[in-house]
Amino acid sequence: MSEQRDPNLGSYLKLIRPKQWIKNLFVLAPLVFARELFDPSPLLLTLKAFAAFCLTASAVYILNDIADVKADRVHPEKRLRPIASGRVSVRQAIGLLVLLLVGVTILVAGMDKRYLAILVTYFFLNVAYSFKLKETVLLDVFIVSAGFMLRVLGGAFAIDVVVSNWIVLCTLFISLFLGFAKRRAELVVHQGLGVTSERKVLTLYSAHFIDQMLTVTTAGAVISYALYTVAPRTIEIFGTDKMIYTTVFVLYGMFRYLYLVHTAETTENPTNAVTSDATIMVTVLLWILTCIGLIYSKI
Length: 299
Description:
CATH topology of the largest domain: Tetracycline Repressor, domain 2
Structural class: mainly alpha
CATH superfamily of the largest domain: UbiA prenyltransferase
Number of domains: 2
Order of helices and strands: HHHHHHHHHHHHHHH
CATH class of the largest domain: Mainly Alpha
Largest sheet: none
Helix content: over 70%
Number of strands: 0
Shape: globular
Number of helices: 15
Distance between the termini: 62 Å
């Protein structure tokens, strides 16, 4: 009981899930592809936008943990979360939530109103997801996907640049891919344990159906990215037609993730799956370095 009344710093850190902030790197995409990575003013605005998304995401995680506390307590891994395990009380979690939202308000003061609208939309969309929409089949995955697209658009509005429709579409497919991969892993875990998930939406999915969705989203992501790299506007802005060669990293990375989906249990958490697999990490790093090299050197 004393631990619940006086949780340590580690419990609060687990509650806000800083490891999940890697998802907010999508905010940086418009900065890189607008060729403003080394311009101090847009860089600072993007970092502020990134930080605000991180704090907002953590606030959403707290709300989600509060809403899911009963389901988490019967989950083999999620039962160890701070609120589900009792290390942090709901009241203490709400207090931290308020502090995070105050921090976001301070960070975004004076930023582009379109970015603010995106951030507010992201927050309330995820609130709706946490308390209702996550129990609607397919819509649950699309809401998560929308969060990634909002990150990209938010990054573009923060520095007042136009983001390619192909990039937005590619983000849609990649995020749907990750969402369906997560659902598949959750389904497999519960089937392996021989238990029924407290999340009713999982009973509406089947591994076969999800595998079909993974095939569609993989193809969509690779094709939309490839079309972006050869689009006339892309070639004109970057001054090179060599971006098409970076498609190999996208293709290999998604194939590697598909391999993990069918051979490992880590895909129940996409962030852990990406950060714990050296092959994917190297592939992402090579893609980033190659893109930066081509975009900024005009090879």
